[in-house]
Amino acid sequence: MNDTALVSIIVAGLLFGTPLVYVAMGELVSQRAGVMNLSLDGIMLFSAVSGYGVAAETGSLWLALATSVLVGASISALFAFLSITLRVSQILAALGLLVFTSGMSQYLGRIGDEPLIGRLSGVSIEPYTTGALTDIPLLGPILFGHDFVVYGSWVLVALTHFYINHTEPGMRVRAVGNDPASAEAAGVRVARVRAVHVIIGGALAGFGGAYYSLGLVPIWQERITSNAGWLAIAIVLAARWRPLAAFAAAFVFGASIRLGFTLQVVGANVSPELLSMIPYVLAIVAVLLTALSRSRGLTEPKALGIPFFREQR
Amino acid sequence: MGGSSDRLAVEMTGISKSFFGQSALTDVDFEVRWGEVHALLGENGAGKSALCSILAGLYRADQGSIRIDGHVVDFRSPHDALNAHVGMVYQEFRLVNEFTVAENVVLGDPRLSRRLKWSEVEESVAEAAAAYDIDTDPRQLVGDLSVGERQRIEILKLLYRDARVLVLDEPTSVLTPSEVRELFQSMDALRRSGRAVILISHKINELRASSDRVTIMRQGRKVAVDKLDDITNDDLTRLMVGRKIAAPRTRQSPPALDRPVLEIRGLNVTNQDGRVAVDSFDAEVHEGEILGIAGIAGNGQRELVEALAGLKPVQSGTVRLQRPVGASAGDSAGAIDVTGMSPRDLIEIGIAHIPEDRRAVGVASGLDIGANLCMKSYWKEPLSRRGVMSRSAVRALEDGLRADFDIRGGSRNLPVSILSGGNIQKVILARELSQSPAVVIAAYPTRGLDLGAVANVRDILIGQLEAGTAVVLVSEDLDELFIMSDRLIVLHAGRIMGEFEPADYDRETVGALMSGGTAAGG
Amino acid sequence: MRRLVLEQRATPSRTFSLALPALSALGALILGSVPLMLIGADPIEVYRLMLTSAFGSTRGITDTLTDAMPIMLTGLAAVVTFRMNVWNIGAEGQLQIGAVTSAGVALWLGDGANTVFALVAMIVAGVLGGSLYAGLVALPAATWRVDEVVLTLMMNFLSLAFINYLVFGSHSPWRDAFSISFPRGQLIPDSSRLPDLSGRLNLGFVITLAVVFLVAWLLKYTVWGYEYLVVADSRGAASFAGINQWRMIVSSFLLSGGCAGLGGAVLVGGTLGAMEPRALTGLGFTGILVAALGRMSPTGVIPAAIVLSAIVSSGPDLQQIGVPAPLTVVLQGLILVVIAGGEFHLRYRLTRAGSTAQEAHGESAP
Lengths: 313, 522, 366
Prior knowledge:
A: about 325 residues, C: about 375 residues, two-stranded antiparallel ribbon
């Protein structure tokens, strides 16, 4: 394999890893607070189609992105209500919302006189032009010539890491995810902390979803996220809830999504159906390996998935 | 501190609270003055913890009002209570084990800046610890601390948050006698600083050593309040219990000390972190004998019990059963090595186990009484045949044991969880003892039960001795151990510190050994 | 005035438990009218169409029952693990692999085989295929406590890619080269086809019902079922009673995968006659809805699957009156959301603070 192929895999990893970073960071803060949101893929799809619809109707990129974020936050607010206030099983509530949102994404894409499916919005996130910098061998195409979402994802990772480990609200998140009863006795409002971070997680997933329909592939097609929401959950698990590790994992997965495509371009004679398995095989291996490595689980939210009810006896 | 002395620190009026439609507190009035240590005395289930949990904002009262330093408050959460300078040290500590001491102390403090500089936080915690004379390393993980250290961190946490009303829920139950003395000294210091301290306890001699006044509760109601100097121990007991408790039944026949049933030799067990929990434990239990195991919680009792029940692997050492079920009494030929046997095999050869956590381990709380009663025999006829359960046999078993062990409440197809603690314990006893075990390992069998149920459980265990069963009784209640045991072993840090015959039972001596000291006067 | 407080029920409300599925289906239909009004459709009209197309004619009824078959089995697969708090959401993949193994055996046996033998072989192959595929997750999940949700999900994506490969792959021997407009695998020989009962409804439906009742019997009347219930209720009590939890987790996974795999076999051997990737997707997730709507009871999946089948299979009819078919997916999601919300009411209730409604409480020991 030559350098160009290598660079193109790395760049593909960056591009396709970027939405994964947003979703994974969202899921990471939500899981660190003790709530597992399995509806991410649906939220992303719903946000992607909503953003695309707004872009097609108004021509405004910013309005489109805001819509996506808002949709993601609203659906996850509903999830927070079900799982935190009503203490419904997190898995069942999330699966219900997952099916609902993915259904809605397909439904909304097909209605109207001019359905969104197959209609060009004319709006997309443009990369920065950096002129000669992009021509630097190897590093040029890797570091330069991307859009603000790519650079934003790098900042987001640093912020998440700092937030979780070095801020007071971040400490509350860790406490709530680990031991809600103790956190509450120390005066932390468990339900509020959880709800806020579930909603933040949903907003980030919404933004990540929007990056597909407005950035990566600026058209609307059903299942546009190609299971990114699920890969994000595997990433969080494999990274053992650590933002920096999740960042690295997101790019490996991003590259793996495009690896099949790249291999075909360079002429490898493997069936595309089998190549499409690569990210999932990778996810399984990563999850198995991290589960087997017995590191002291200080970053693991012990109360993950368990509803908290104070007067339970 | 806390305003003029004529204002009360705490004034709770007409507090009522029910759980599951069951009344826990009825119209309780409770007052605490600034600068006093106020004891709250009552049996298990009398409502002491519930009352204080309401004061600390953990629960909300159904009815009634609370004033703190004269101001009406309405706490919706511990957050509100802490802001009003009211804090509580819970019986099961509320510390995040994966956090450092410093993180635990500052968690939830609204005065913290949003951005944390850990060195500064650790320094301020170290300063506070020094100011209150508490010895700690802010960087240590709380999970690595001893129970006594954790309790001091809980108190430090409250003082760091400037709590002026401090509630301590049964703080001495996990402490050694010397740690108890230290605790009482720091409570005295808090009193002298003008704070109000509430001590929840059911041990009368502790109150005498520490408190100014006492409020006595019984069955969810306040029955009396008085200065400790003005009330006798007999009156305290009478007010707390409300009825005469019959003396425990005396033993009919002495244990057969020439016939050992269970022999434990050089047993070593590690805890979940891989540290030594039980260290070269040697003991034997004889037919019709109760062997008491005394010790402060967390000194290896749990690991010992779990190893004997097959729930935890044994590192080294042997456990031999001299009279497995099936062999006749006195037949010494049938001795077998049971070390490391599976729980199922141990059940089969007659080692019964009354577990410490009766609701989460002792029963499957969502299943009905019948299903719980057959849990140790369902694989055998007549309860099942060729893999198919016999519902009529299960029903017959339930009806029989219900009558034999006087299990009250509940009904078919209703979860066992709706029974009272005493009746759940009877379900467990019925199941374990109906198998005619050779050995019964009972861990804290009366903990948290009301006095009537306590007497019941003790009678059932003693009754079992007539059949030649050997009983290992683990408890942290010295009174219970002294009443029940034919011999007593004291455990500290996983090691046997001493062995006693009934004639030598002495609270001071045993207490000293429990805390790792040497026998007094020796 | 007394505050309203949330109180945990000692035992779940029985009447509400029975009414909940119907109420949540109703709730979902009401909520589902919002997207319908978005396109100016009359919800009542749409729902009436769905009802008549599903139950209005003999053909409609047999079609509904036929389509209920696979989701009844994936629903059963979900019940068998979910009850134990093990989250096998891989019924989708297990069904697909069951379809692959049963189609494989049918194709391998070829035309000349004895019909009874061929049918049995095909069905056993489907069950084993699904079961073994679930076993691949069961082992790490039970042995090292690896998160089974993520694993089973990823396995779904793998199996989908695999059947796509078998059907579309240029080198695949299973490809039906003659079917161009309608991608599917090779038709299986007639000797392996399940005989029809009425319309599209075939013998598979009888087998499905038999399996549902068999699983219900296993749970309720056998030693395995008793151990299952103890583990489901309390892991602590289970190890105390000497029940091998590893064995219970693995066996429930295998049973679950077997049910889903049977779903693949009855599709390939009955309704489809070949592997058809599009007809083999989405059934696992619908199965989760079936399980929830059936209140996690093995026999509850029968009515639940029929109701959901009526919704799912109305897609083409909706399309005819200008309502996009994904509306059926929206409705499914809403049903699960509403039913999950309703669970809350089973376990908690709002009461006036301090009203001591007496329930069946045990007395304190005397």
